Automatic annotation (TrEMBL):
Transmembrane segments: 12-29, 35-62, 74-95, 101-118, 139-160, 166-187, 194-212, 224-243, 255-274, 286-310
Record-given protein name: 2-keto-3-deoxygluconate permease
Lineage: Bacteria, Bacillati, Bacillota, Bacilli, Bacillales
Pfam families given in the database record: KdgT (PF03812)
InterPro entries, per the entry: 2keto-3dGluconate_permease
UniProt keyword Transport, yes or no: yes
Annotated GO CC locations: membrane
C-alpha cells in the first residue's frame, strides 16, 4: 500500500492530510491528548516544540555564499512578498474589525490571515517548478524564500504597523532556532545536508498537531474564504512578483509567478502569534483553517499560472535572463513546459 504516493497526489498533501485528520480527531474525540497524556498527548499538543525543530532545520539549509544573481533574485522575491503582504495588511486594518469578520460569506477574514497567507511562499513548490523548467539559478534562490518561514515577518509587520506589540525577547525567540540552524549549516556542509533532510519529515507532524487545535466545522465554514484567499494570493502576489522579477532582476518574470503561493508553514503562524499575543486568540482558529485551504488552492493554481506565463514569454520572445553585457539566454529545453 503506497500511503506516501497517495498523500502526495493531493496538492500540499503532507500538510493538508495530517491537518485534516488532526481536526477530525479533535472534533470526534477532543479529550484524546489529556486522556492518554505522555508521548501521545505531546505529539498532539506539542506544536511549538516541533516547529522550533522545523525552523532550526530550515535555517540549516541556507547557504550564505550565493552568486550575485541568485542573491538578487532571492532578495527581490523575499522583499516583494513580505512588502506586499504588509501593504495589504495595513490597508485591510483600515476597514476590518479588530477580531475580523465573524459572520456571513467573508467570515474569518482578518488582518492576521491576510498577512500570514500572503507573506510566505511555498519554497518546495517554487523549487520544483524552477527545476522542471531547467532554471537552476532561479531554483537556487530557495534559501532566501525559506527566510519567510515562521512568524517573524508577520510579527514585524504587525508591530511596525502598530497593529500589535511584542516584547523584543519574543521577537528574538522566534529567530534563535532559525539563526542557530543557519550557523551550524554554514559551518559544516554535512550538517546542512543532514538537517535539511528533516525539513519535509517534520511537516506532517506539526500539521497533525495544528489540526488537533482546530474544529472540523471551522474548516468547512471557512471553505469559501480559504478558496478566495488562495486565488487572491496567486493573482495579486503573482502579479506584483512578476513585475519585480521582470524589471528589477532583469528576468522574464516566471520565477516571480512561481513564488505566488502560500507556504504550508504559514498554517502554523496564527497559532504562534496567538500564543505570543492573546489579542489574536479569537481569530487564530479561523485564520488557521483559511490558510490551510489557501495552501491547497495555491498548490493547484500556481503551477498552472507559472507554466502559462513561461509559454507566453517564449512566444513573446522575452529572454529568461539578461546579462550586463546585453546578451541574454532562453530556455535550454522548451519541451519542459509543453
Amino acid at each position: 500500500m503506497r500511503i506516501k504516493a497517495g498523500i502526495e497526489k493531493i496538492p500540499g498533501g503532507m500538510m493538508v492530510v495530517p491537518l485534516f485528520f488532526g481536526a477530525l480527531l479533535n472534533t470526534l474525540a477532543p479529550e484524546t491528548a489529556t486522556y492518554f497524556g505522555g508521548f501521545t498527548g505531546a505529539l498532539l499538543t506539542g506544536t511549538s516544540a516541533i516547529l522550533a525543530v522545523f525552523f532550526f532545520c530550515v535555517g540549516a539549509t541556507i547557504d550564505v555564499k550565493q552568486s550575485g544573481y541568485i542573491a538578487k533574485k532571492g532578495l527581490t522575491l523575499l522583499i516583494g512578498k513580505v512588502g506586499f503582504a504588509a501593504l495589504l495588511g495595513y490597508g485591510a486594518a483600515l476597514f476590518l474589525p479588530e477580531n475580523g469578520i465573524q459572520s456571513g460569506l467573508f467570515a474569518g477574514l482578518s488582518v492576521l490571515v491576510i498577512i500570514a497567507a500572503f507573506n510566505e511562499t511555498n519554497g518546495g513548490l517554487y523549487t520544483a517548478l524552477m527545476t522542471k523548467l531547467g532554471r537552476t539559478e532561479d531554483a537556487a534562490a530557495f534559501p532566501f524564500i525559506s527566510i519567510e518561514s515562521g512568524p517573524f515577518f508577520t510579527m514585524i509587520i504587525l508591530g511596525v504597523g502598530g497593529l500589535a506589540t511584542f516584547p523584543w525577547q519574543t521577537i528574538v525567540s522566534t529567530l534563535i532556532p532559525f539563526a542557530a540552524g543557519m550557523i551550524i549549516g554554514n559551518i559544516d556542509k554535512e550538517m546542512r545536508a543532514f538537517l535539511g533532510q528533516a525539513v519535509p519529515v517534520l511537516i506532517p507532524f506539526f500539521a497533525l498537531s495544528l489540526g488537533f487545535g482546530l474544529d472540523f466545522g471551522m474548516i468547512v465554514r471557512s471553505g469559501f474564504m480559504g478558496v478566495l484567499m488562495g486565488v487572491a494570493v496567486v493573482l495579486l502576489s503573482g502579479g506584483v512578483l512578476y513585475l519585480m522579477d521582470r524589471y528589477i532582476t532583469g528576468s522574464d518574470g516566471v520565477a516571480g509567478v512561481a513564488a505566488s503561493s502560500t507556504a504550508g508553514a504559514a498554517v502554523a503562524v496564527p497559532f504562534i502569534i496567538a500564543e505570543l499575543n492573546p489579542q489574536f486568540a479569537p481569530v487564530a482558529e479561523s485564520a488557521t483553517a483559511i490558510i490551510a485551504t489557501s495552501v491547497l488552492v495555491t498548490a493547484l493554481l500556481t503551477p498552472i499560472f507559472t507554466m502559462w506565463v513561461a509559454k507566453l514569454q517564449i512566444k513573446r520572445g522575452i529572454p529568461q535572463r539578461k546579462y550586463k553585457n546585453g546578451s541574454s539566454n532562453s530556455y535550454s529545453d522548451q519541451s519542459k513546459i509543453i
